[in-house]
User: Which sequence fits this backbone?
């Protein structure tokens, strides 16, 4: 697989120093799933395909950067500024969702801002503070006295907290992140997976991948995650793949989807599995289904699919990013938001901005 390091136009020395720290953490994280070094390392340079990969400047056109700017400004304008929900997003039934807050924070950090630093540094700080305040004594991240939410929201929130902690080293944020990791580990079932609630029960691939990424990010930021937990969850993912390369919803069987396949591939890449039949079959399945991603899970599916193609690199990436970029640019509203999601405009806009900014290569959890 090819790996072209993209360069940022932001030359702020403090930001660059933090990015260097996190890039080192991300590189160390390549081995974070306990696999032998010979399985984690990329192929030797002389074995890499001779494909010239497009640069960030080629892919992120002027219209793309304008769209991202408008999207992030929309999110900043929707972020709650006062009260117990200070820092939150989410309209209608998803108001105050810790998951949408986590995705909003990731969107701002994908631009290059860090907690308190950069054009959206204030917004990142607000996200991190909201998630910290709503991490309960058990470590479950959820809003309200009834701990309303689910492990999806907990996972996205923990992912954001991990990236923010790696950049800021705030003591309270680190303390709450450790609690959140303990909560996730305690809810892992014997198969290695997770379900909707923070208790041991059955499992599904979608929730499981969300926890895998959050644990990986936490480990990269310096939080201890036992090898046994990582090994079990990766085995769960491997056993979820079918003969045609797609991934099924549960170990008992059930449907396979575009979104689940993108998620499954990302977890394998995170484990240091870069090549082989599992990867190639999964990538080819995504390519075949590119124009038929499930409408209800469009943003969720493409959030994972763009990561999978980013990790694959080469022609996979060269072909994939312009396609999803142009689709997103054509559906953005005049307000800067993406509104075609049942989870609300803040969710859709955060997801769209993360997808569009993948070439920026700013966040360790997305790094190759």
Assistant:
């Amino acid at each position: 697989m090819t790996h072209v390091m993209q360069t940022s136009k932001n030359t702020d020395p403090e930001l660059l120093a933090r990015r260097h720290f996190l890039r080192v953490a991300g590189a160390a994280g390549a081995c974070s799933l306990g696999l032998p070094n010979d399985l984690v390392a990329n192929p030797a340079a002389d074995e890499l395909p001779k494909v010239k990969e497009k640069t960030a400047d080629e892919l992120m056109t002027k219209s793309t950067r304008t769209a991202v700017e408008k999207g992030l400004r929309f999110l900043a304008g929707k972020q709650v500024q006062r009260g117990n929900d200070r820092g939150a997003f989410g309209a209608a039934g998803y108001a105050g969702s810790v998951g949408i807050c986590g995705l909003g924070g990731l969107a701002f950090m994908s631009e290059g801002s860090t907690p308190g630093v950069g054009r959206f540094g204030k917004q990142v700080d607000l996200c991190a503070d909201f998630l910290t305040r709503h991490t309960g004594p058990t470590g479950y991240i959820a809003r309200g006295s009834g701990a309303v939410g689910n492990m999806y929201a907990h996972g996205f929130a923990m992912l954001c907290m991990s990236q923010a902690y790696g950049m800021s080293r705030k003591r309270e944020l680190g303390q709450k992140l450790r609690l959140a990791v303990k909560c996730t580990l305690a809810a892992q079932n014997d198969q290695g997976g997770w379900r909707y609630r923070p208790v041991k029960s059955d499992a599904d691939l979608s929730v499981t991948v969300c926890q895998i990424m959050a644990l990986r990010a936490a480990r990269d930021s310096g939080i201890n995650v036992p090898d046994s937990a990582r090994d079990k969850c990766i085995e769960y993912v491997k056993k979820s793949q079918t003969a045609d390369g797609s991934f099924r919803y549960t170990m008992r069987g059930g449907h396979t989807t575009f979104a689940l396949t993108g998620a499954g591939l990302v977890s394998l890449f995170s484990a240091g599995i870069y090549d082989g039949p599992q990867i190639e079959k999964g990538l080819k399945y995504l390519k075949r289904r590119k124009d038929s991603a499930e409408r209800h899970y469009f943003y969720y599916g493409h959030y994972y699919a763009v990561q999978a193609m980013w990790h694959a690199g080469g022609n996979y990436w060269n072909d994939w990013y312009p396609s999803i970029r142009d689709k997103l640019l054509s559906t953005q509203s005049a307000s800067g938001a993406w509104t075609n999601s049942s989870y609300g405009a803040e969710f859709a806009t955060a997801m769209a901005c993360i997808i569009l900014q993948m070439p920026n290569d700013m966040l360790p959890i997305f790094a190759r």
Remarks:
- The chain is about 55% helix and 0% strand.
- Residues 1-24, 26-48 have pLDDT under 50 and may be disordered.
- The chain has one domain: 67-366.
